[in-house]
Amino acid sequence: MNASHQQGFSLVAAIFVIALALLIVLAAVLSLSVRSRSTVLALEGSRALAAADSGLEVAIARALAGGCAAVPASLTLEGFDVTLECTAFAADEAPTTYTIYRLTARAASGSFADSTLVSRSVRATVTQ
């Protein structure tokens, strides 16, 4: 084999090695991007749960003070839209009559269309 054929082979081998290295770097960058996005969504999930818990606390306080009519339908907490639901039931255990409130709070943020929707719901049942 003469020297000119060996130099051409070296060029092909070098291009192959560079292409392989670029593919490895690209895979690493994409993997880090996915991990970063999942970390952000996990953090947003925790924030949504905290907003739902806070909304539920508001609903409990308002329901115990003035019944379901005093519970707002929705509120905004730290960028989350929190919807509140309240259902009242009368309980009669002679001779005592009391009211049972079933409360639900759902906190949501983001959009389903761009894959940023985060939502958490919490429920509680309280008596007066």
Q: H/E series, N to C?
A: HEEEE
Indicate how many domains the architecture comprises.
1
- The average pLDDT value, as a whole number, equals 87
**Gyration radius, to the nearest Å?**
29 Å
Mind sketching the topology for me?
Blueprint (H helix, E strand, L loop, with lengths): L2 H64 L7 E4 L2 E14 L2 E14 L8 E10 L1
Antiparallel strand pairs: 1-2, 2-3, 3-4
Describe this structure in words.
- The protein is of the alpha+beta class and 128 residues long.
- Helices cover 50% and strands 33% of the residues.
- The protein is built from one helix and four strands, in the order αββββ.
- Strands 1-2-3-4 form a four-stranded antiparallel beta sheet.
- The longest helix is centred in the first third of the chain and has 64 residues, at 3-66.
Key words describing this protein structure:
alpha+beta; 1 helix; single chain; rod-shaped
